[in-house]
Amino acid sequence: MNTSFRTCSVTGLKIHSEAEKLIKINAVTSVVFLLVGGLMAILIAMTRWPAVHLLPEDLFYRFLTLHAIAMLVAWIIFMEMAILYFTSAVLLNSRLAVPKVAWLAYILMIGGAGIVAVTILLGKADVMFTSYPPLQADPMYYLGVILFAVGAILGCCVFFATLIVAKSEKTYEGSLPLVTFGAAAAAIIAIITLAHGAIIYVPTWLWSLGIIQHIDAPTYRLIFWGFGHSSQQINVCAMIAVWYLLGTLTVGSKPISQKLCRTAFVLYILFIDIASEHHLLVDPGLSPAHKSWNTGYFMHLAVLASMIHAFAVPASVEVALRKKGYTKGLFEWLKGAPWGNPAFSSLVFSMVGFGFLGGITGITFGTEQLSIISHNTWRITGHFHGTVVAGTTMAFMGLTYYVIPLIFRREYVAPKLASAQPYLFGIGMFLVSFSMMFVGGFGVPRRHWDITFTDAIFKVSFNPVVDIGMAVFGIGAILAVVGGAIFCLQAVATLLMGRKLA
Amino acid sequence: MAGNENENHAPGSFVLIWIFFATMVLLYFLNWKYLSGVWHVGTGN
Fold first, then answer.
1. What is the ipTM of this complex?
2. CA-based nearest residue to A361, from B26, B18, B37, B14
3. Is the CB of residue A159 less than 8 Å from the CB of residue A99?
4. How many CA atoms lie within 13 Å of A80's alpha carbon, on the beta-carbon side?
5. pTM
């Protein structure tokens, strides 16, 4: 058993070498998938913008499928594995439990994600992220997803085993730090989510092999969304844990009420997965009472949790900055905040994007009656680009600005570019998300190759203002992809050429 | 206890959260207004 440690010269934390290696490999892999997903993003965006309309239709749907898998699953969950190992082994000064299982988890995840990506690129899985039956992909696609899910479940088990090791070896005092508590909530949601994935993908895989003759489409949709949307709830939980961490790292903030924040995480565990049912609000197979209870009542207990965090995180930042002397009026603390620190600006963009773009629209579109005017329109895509990209991705980017010097011990090659990157990416994503929701309000459909419906029997036209919205979307997409590319290149260049820190 | 309350004084965030809440209420209202415009409920006449 390898139990060698080093002590971080900045934080004083003891870092287990095996945990450090696993954090590095998972973080690097996640950035590679971000690069792949970003490349797909610009190709898709330049096709959806009618003025450019770049790709033929088969490639558009193929690349859209890969974009969703790379971004919603691979980039996010590999980074979450790095976060789980960081918040357990590193923050608790502990050794990582069963590193061999953690390596097995990584091999299964990278193998699964690789199989899925290659199968999509070979044109054998043009089924979109949802892969709703009767659409059928090559068996390798489903097998890849299953391997990835099993690997991620193992990674979560390693996280919980590390918590037990840290407790029994008394590597920390008192209760778990809030960040680790939040990561634990994310890991519990992850296990529930990945179990849904396994439950539905195993029979679907057998169906694609011809062993099972029939898959019930409504049942597939119901269980799929236990995986498909709940995987984004893992992101929400992990993102909020990262918000608290970034608040501490950037301005030295402390949660204003540990009990309240922990209660909010428990509310997520209990109720946030139920909110996934909003995908089925226009599905005729479920009763109105079922839909109403899940999305009209239980969902709002998860919303309550988000409202608690929405106040607790900025309040803790404000308290910390007021203690540093920024006490004039209501907002001097905002003026005195470290806006040039990319981790801090990423934190603010993440909170504003998640709350104003993704959060309030999610609550609105997830209401049973209102779903009918947003379902399958681009409003939905705008909503989740607000949550997953402007929210989660920006938070994870902000965290990376600390992970590279702390874990990889490298100094950034272009610090000024690093300071500008969150603004470029954030403004780009705000334009993308807002314009998607704006034109979606005029009925522009999601996942559509050609909204001009060139060869269609029936002529469809949109309000001319949609053209302006599509142009804003295109410009926003270019800004965001440039910002994303700077992030990836900066990370790779720093790892390869950055000056070594002591 | 009073000292602790003072330490956690965050009036700016309190204002920000009310702006956030008001935006949510406005968006929610506008969507119901939009729905009422496209989905008429009546006697069918």
1. 0.87
2. B26
3. no
4. 38
5. 0.93
